[in-house]
Design a protein that fits this description.
By secondary structure, the chain is α/β, with parallel strands linked by helices. It contains 10 helices and 9 strands. The chain has helices at about 5-15, 40-45, 45-50, 55-60, 60-75, 80-90, 105-110, 170-180, 200-205, 235-245; strands spanning about 20, 100, 115-120, 120-130, 135, 155-160, 185, 210-215, 225-230. It has a 6-stranded parallel beta sheet, with helices on both faces. Strands 5-4-6 form a 3-stranded antiparallel beta sheet, covered by helices on one side. Strand 4 (about 120-130) and strand 5 (about 135) form a beta hairpin. Helix 1 crosses helix 10 (about 235-245). The longest helix has 17 residues, at about 60-75. It is elongated and about 65 Å long. The two termini are about 20 Å apart. The structure holds adenosine-5-diphosphoribose. The site of adenosine-5-diphosphoribose has 23 residues, from loops. Adenosine-5-diphosphoribose binds near residues 29, 34, 36, 120 and 214.
Length: about 250
């Protein structure tokens, strides 16, 4: 009788087009808190109070002061963990083409994956609300809040706030990759935020096998996932690669 890990490894070994969808859970072991569940950011900050574009435009100082400053410190010192490194290894093995990530921490690129779709943008860049000048988050000092551009405009992070559209290119590429993959790895996401949470459904409807890796059950676990591996993403991905290696 095959274990769940062996079943997942077999699906990956037989697959030609593999795509991953990742969420905040994959970065928890890098010191970045998730949004929901234990220690989640939304337990601390009401997202409609701090992460909605209308609130940011009305009171950028409050959002920078209370939430963005803390996020900058946390994200800037984060390094890829074994889950990120494992996905980079899967790409090297020719067993992962693209990562669709909801995360804004840039850790997949830092780990070495070469094709990462940033569904919710990236926290590493700021954009001036007035002249659209971009600068690196790393280079801005937050002694003055909110940070402002030389034109006097206020800088906003280059990520997608609630109330904003997903970048069109990210959305269309993700939909087509989800439609054409034969395995989707779904890692560290509560699968409740649309339209990202639609991608596993599109993949499933197109006949793909869904392998879910998450610390707790999600709306996908009992109805969409073909294999649900519950636990820490880094431990599971290490085991998955060890089991896969002899099969490829
Ligand atoms: N290993 C695996 N899974 C984990 C780990 C871990 N070490 N730690 C936490 N998790 C799981 C949690 O159980 C949870 O189901 O990761 C999931 C994280 O869910 P969320 O915090 O909701 O993150 P995500 O799904 O990425 O949220 C989607 O919501 O607020 C918006 O823009 C934000 O991109 C985010 C989107």
């Amino acid at each position: 009788m095959m274990t769940l890990i062996e079943k997942a490894a077999q699906y990956i070994a037989n697959a030609k087009q593999i795509v991953a969808l990742t969420g905040a859970g994959i970065s928890v072991e890098s010191g970045i808190p998730p949004f929901r569940g234990k220690g989640g950011l939304w337990e601390k900050f009401d997202p409609m109070e701090y992460a909605h574009i209308d609130v940011f435009l009305k009171n950028p100082k409050k959002v920078w002061d209370v939430m963005l400053k803390e996020m900058k410190e946390i994200i800037q010192q984060a390094k890829p963990n074994n889950a990120h490194l494992g996905l980079a290894k899967l790409e090297q093995m020719g067993k992962l083409k693209t990562i669709i990530t909801q995360n804004i921490d840039g850790l997949h690129q830092m780990a070495g994956n070469s094709d990462v779709i940033e569904f919710h943008g990236n926290f590493a860049w700021l954009r001036c609300l007035n002249c659209s000048h971009r600068c690196a988050m790393r280079d801005v000092n937050l002694d003055v809040i909110p940070p402002t551009c030389s034109c006097g405009g206020i800088y906003r992070p280059d990520c997608v706030f609630f109330g904003e559209m997903i970048p069109m290119e990210a959305l269309t590429r993700s939909q087509s990759l989800s439609k054409n993959c034969d395995v989707m790895l779904v890692i560290g996401t509560s699968a409740v935020v649309q339209p990202a949470a639609l991608m596993p459904m599109i993949a499933k409807d197109s006949g793909a096998k869904i392998i879910e890796i998450n610390a707790e059950p999600t709306p996908l676990t009992y109805s969409v996932s073909d294999v649900a591996l519950q636990g820490n993403a880094s431990e599971i991905i290490i085991k998955l690669i060890d089991t896969l290696q002899p099969l490829v």
